[in-house]
Amino acid sequence: MSKPVRQHYIPRSYLKNFATQKDKKTFLVDAYNLEAENLIENISTKDICLEKHIYTIETNDPAKKFALEKYYADNVDSEYPNIYKILTDKSIKSVDKNQKWQILYVCLSLYFRTPHYLNQHNKITNEILDNTVPYANKEGIITLDYFGKKVTFHKDAIEEVKKEFNLENKTIFHVKHLEQWMNFVHFKYGCVINVIEIEDKSGPLITCDNPVSIRHMKTNKFAGLFDVNSVITLPLDPYHFLEIHPNTYADGDTKINRLIHDKDFSFTTNGITQSNASNWLIGKSGTIDTHFKIQEHYENPENGEAFVDKAKFRAEEMQRILSLTEKEGFSKTVIEEYKKLEKHPYFKDDKNLKEHIAMMKANGLF
Fold it and tell me: Range with the lowest mean pLDDT among 147-156, 315-324, 338-347?
């Protein structure tokens, strides 16, 4: 049995939903390297989002060496297709408690298992060590207090010391990310889950090598892992998107809300995906080119201003009418406000509003 040396930190079972199938076992994606600014077409999902030995445990016990890699293979990678099917099946309106747990457990693993923070930690460690070299004594000896740990070494051995620290950082990563992952699933369990479909096929979604975004719902910036106002998003395929609401919207429900959005939403969502990427944007053949063309369109000042005006108006109006509904219920005033929105040009293609009005009509409220 071959040793699993090339270890995927983003599962191939996730990536295949952004791929074109070449044969029974081969799935091809387009990948854009942000650092080199070049597009690689038709790269196999076998050859992207992986690192050698990222999950290999430093032990002399061969039975334990690949235990973490095997755990991911058995409990996440092989489970993802079933989770994806639940999330993208329109006929599924609710799940049981175990299924909701599995949705959160499997999807959120894509945040905690990536090497993003490990690489950042190693970068900081290496910079700290490099900055100590000028302070070596006459014999070339460096004495360092590294977060309470006293280290002494000769400046000529700095590369070896870096390796030792990076190895220690990896061991910490193995333990800490599993603990944080489990705690975070518990933290988000009661939150509302939305699955958004992009009906406009001219605005496909892309993904990246760090696809789970956690950001404050108003600032769109990371405000801490356990920020109660954070929204979590994950592209599922070119036309489906997972959204986990802030804890302030938690209701403990197991319902899956299904919404429809347009190309404007794809533009903002792909922008978040790009800003969250470590180095790779990934998508179905042609979709990354489409992403950059849409981005270029909205970067035109006139188009960008129109987009911001529309998005701002829709968000503010929906918030206003929902607040009014909470206070007054479906009063005559509230119904009139819904009618005004229905006629407004910014809402003419809003299927979520149309479905909401259809529900009110079915209940004799509209």
Answer: 315-324
The DSSP secondary-structure symbol of 6 reads E
CA distance 180 to 256: 25
Q: Are 215 and 234 contacting, i.e. CB atoms less than 8 angstroms apart?
A: no
Mean pLDDT of the chain: 89
- Three-class secondary structure of residue 72 per DSSP: helix
Strand runs labelled E in the chain: 6-8, 20-21, 27-33, 38-44, 50-52, 141-146, 149-154, 193-198, 207-208, 213-216, 230-237, 240-244, 256-261, 280-283
Residue 315 near residue 346, CB atoms below 8 Å: no
Beta strands in 103-167 (DSSP E): 141-146, 149-154
Residue 230: CB atoms within 10 Å: 23
pTM of the predicted model, to two decimals?
0.82
User: Given CA atoms 323, 328, 330, 335 in this order, what sign does their dihedral have?
Assistant: negative
Could you report how far apart the first and last alpha carbons of the chain are, in Å?
Answer: 66
Strand 193-198 versus strand 256-261 pairing type? parallel
Long-range contacts, stretch 266-269, CB < 8 angstroms, 24+ apart: 266/198, 266/200, 266/203, 266/204, 266/205, 266/294, 267/203, 267/294, 267/295, 267/298, 267/307, 268/311, 269/205, 269/233, 269/235, 269/241
Residue 32 β-bridge partners: 39, 281
DSSP readout, 272-295?
HHHHH-SSEEEESTTHHHHHHHHH
pLDDT of residue 1: 46
The vertex-35 CA angle with 33 and 39, nearest 5°, equals 25
Higher-pLDDT residue of 321 and 197 is 197
Structure-token pair, residue 226 = 């356990």
Half-sphere exposure of 228 (CA within 13 A, CB side): 5
In angstroms, the CA 56 to CA 174 distance is 9
- What strands lie across the sheet with 193-198, from one edge to the other? 213-216, 230-237, 240-244, 193-198, 256-261
At position 250, the amino acid (one-letter code) is A
Burial class of residue 104 in the structure, from the number of CB atoms within 10 Å of its CB (0-12 exposed, 13-18 middle, 19+ buried): buried
